[in-house]
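Repro:
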Amino acid sequence: MAIKLTLTEDEAEMIVDALEADMEGYLESAKEARGNSNREDVKTFGEAAERIGGLINKLRALLD
């Protein structure tokens, strides 16, 4: 299912900023999990960060 949403450029940039902060949290969690040798969490957090990164790139492409 696709969702259509109309945003101002400012609103889209706010979403990108929030997603970047969220992605940083997942990357930090993956780093901590790696330090604790918890491979499953490393994978889960890493995948979440990748998906967020993909969404950020999609939004940035629309802003450029």
